[in-house]
Design goal:
This protein has 90 residues and is mainly α. Helices cover 61% and strands 0% of the residues.
C-alpha cells in the first residue's frame, strides 16, 4: 500500500476518533458552578484540548493498527468487500 494511502486512511481515522474523544470528561460551567458572565452555561469549564489530541492520537493509532493488520493478513479479503458493497460495474 502506498505511503500516501496509509497517511490518508490514518488521517480519516484520526479525524473520526477526534469527534468520539471530544466529549470525554467535559464538565459544563453550570456543573462546575463557575459560569462566566456573558457565556453559555453549557460551555465547558476547562478545555483540555492537548489532552484530547493526545488521546485521539493513541486511540486512532490502535484502530489504524487493527485495520492495517486486517488488511496485511488478508483477514477481510478485498474481493469480499467488493461483493458486499456492490459497486457499479463498468
Amino acid at each position: 500500500m502506498p505511503i500516501g494511502t496509509i497517511l490518508a486512511i490514518y488521517f480519516i481515522i484520526w479525524w473520526v476518533v477526534l469527534f468520539a474523544v471530544l466529549p470525554w470528561g467535559v464538565r459544563s460551567q453550570h456543573e462546575a458552578g463557575e459560569v462566566e458572565p456573558g457565556t453559555e452555561p453549557g460551555a465547558p469549564s476547562v478545555h483540555l484540548v492537548w489532552k484530547k489530541l493526545l488521546w485521539t492520537t493513541i486511540v486512532a493509532s490502535i484502530v489504524f493498527a487493527l485495520a492495517y493488520g486486517l488488511y496485511w493478513f488478508n483477514l477481510v479479503p478485498i474481493d469480499w468487500l467488493l461483493r458486499i458493497s456492490n459497486p457499479p460495474h463498468s
